[in-house]
Structure formats: C-alpha cells, structure tokens
Amino acid sequence: MAFKDSKIILVGRGGSGKDFMRKKFEERGFKYCVSYTSRPKRENEKEGKDYYFKEESFFNNNIHRFYEIDDFNGWKYGRLIEDFERASLLIMTPGGIKKIKPEHRKKCIIIFIAPDREILRQRLAERKDADSAERRLIADDQDFLDFFDYDIRITNSDF
Predict the structure, then answer these.
(1) Neighbours of 138 (CB within 10 A)
(2) How sure is the predictor about 1, in pLDDT bands with cuts at 50, 70 and 90?
(3) Which H or E run includes 11?
(4) Which of 16, 26, 41, 131 could cross-link to 12 by cystine, CB 3.0-4.6 Å?
C-alpha cells in the first residue's frame, strides 16, 4: 500500500470545530479524505463533500476496501484505502486513529481540537442533528477516554 507523503489528521469531540478547521486547510490546497458513514445526513451536509452516506450493509460488504472502519455512537465511519492514500487531510475518531499502521503514523500530524465542554454543548445544541447534545457529549466522553495519541492539542474555541 502506498502512503503518499505526510497527512494532517483532525480529531475532536462533536462541535469542536473540526469541519471549520478542515475548510481552512482545504482553502490552502490540502486534499480532504471524504469519509463514509452510516449515520443520517444533517441538514447542511452534501453527499460526497462532507460524507458518503451509506447503509451499514455497504460497510459489511466492502470491508476489504476500507483502510479503517470505526463504530461510534451506533454508526459506522470509515475511509477507503485509495482515498486514505491520496489525501493530505483527514478527520478521524480516536478509534480510527488506533487503526493507523505504525509506519503510517510516523508521517501523520494529529491535531486534537479540545475546546471547553460548555462550548461543545452550545454548538451541539445549535445543530439540526439526529442525536441530542447530551447523548453526543456522553458518547464522546467514552470515545475520548484515555485518548493521548496526538501531536498538537488546541483548547481555545476560536483557534
């Protein structure tokens, strides 16, 4: 498997600003890896731009095509091998990061976006989402338990 240069990986709880930061990197020429998900599409999301929205059966039937698949909050997330190889910018979950091969991890810079919990709660409450803000916060608490595999941690909410 080819790896193609270094990668920037953004990781953070729901409402942390991952998509905001992703768009800033894309404006400067970074190639974003669009992930696949089985979760419902949010109001402003676009197929093929934010995610590829697929049924869970798509993941199960194509497992050999994925670099990594992660289960989070009852939904599947993942990216295809060829998309992972071509990208210079990714958004991943802690579970997805654990699946990065050690030889690839050496070429990744992982940025953990971690603003204050009240900022997260406010942003999540403003979303038109299939999930409640409190349920997401609780799920993220579990997902980020013992997460330390990052290179940079950003705690201020306006970056």
Answers:
(1) 12
(2) low
(3) strand 7-12
(4) 16
Phi/psi region, residue 10 (left: phi>0; alpha: psi -120 to 50; beta: rest), is: beta
CATH (one of 3.40.50.2300, 3.30.63.10, 2.40.100.10, 2.60.40.2700) for 7-154:
3.30.63.10
Sheet holding 152-154, edge to edge: 89-91, 7-12, 108-113, 152-154
Of 78 and 159, the structure prediction assigns the larger pLDDT to: 78
What residue segments make up the domains of the chain, in order of their start?
Answer: 7-154
Output the pTM of the full model: 0.87
Q: How confident is the model at residue 125 (pLDDT cuts 50, 70, 90)?
A: confident
